[in-house]
Amino acid sequence: MIKGAKISLGGQEWILPPLNLEDLEKYWGFISGKEQPTEPMEIFLITAEVIHAALKRNYPDITLIELKKHFDIPTLKQLLADLQKASGLVDISGETPGET
Predict the structure, then answer these.
(1) Separation CA 99–CA 67 (nearest Å)
(2) What is the rounded CA–CA span in Å between residue 81 and residue 13?
(3) Among candidates 4, 50, 57, which has minimal Cα distance to 29?
(4) If both were cysteines, with which of 19, 64, 69, 95 could 24 make a disulfide (CB 3.0 to 4.6 Å apart)?
(5) Which residues of 12-44 are buried (b: 16+ CB within 10 A; e: fewer)?
C-alpha cells in the first residue's frame, strides 16, 4: 500500500496516494491550471480521471465508473486538494512549491 491521504468514499476508507510521474505528466496542464477546460462538466470529468489514476496505484481493480457513483462536486474539489497535498504539489500554507 502506497502512503497517501486518508479519504472516505461511499462509507469506505481509502488511501489516496500521490500520482506517479507518468500520470502527473499526463495531467500536469490540468493540475497546474495552465490548461483548463471551459465546460464545467469537462472539469469534473477530468478531475474524476485524475483521482482514479491515483487510486489505481493502491486499488488496481477500481474502475472509473465505480468511482463516479461516489463523486459529487464538493467531494471532487476536496479530493483534488487532498491529492495535490499528497503529491507534494501544495505545501501546508496552501502555496504551490516553487511559486512566490
Answers:
(1) 33
(2) 17
(3) 50
(4) 19
(5) eebbbbbbeeebbeebeebbeeeeeeeeeeebb
Question: What percent of the chain has pLDDT above 90?
Answer: 66
The torsion defined by the Cα of 20, 68, 16 and 30, in degrees rounded to 10, comes to 40
Q: CB burial class (10 A; 0-12, 13-18, 19+) of residue 99?
A: exposed
Q: Return the pLDDT at 95.
A: 54
Which grid cell sits at 80? 483534488
The C-alpha cell of 53 is what? 489514476
Mean pLDDT of 41-62: 96
Cα distance between residue 14 and residue 8, in whole Å? 6
Residue 59, all three cell numbers: 486499488
C-alpha cell at 60: 488496481
Nearest CA-CA partner of 10 in 54, 56, 66: 66
Q: How far apart are CA 25 and CA 98, in angstroms?
A: 17
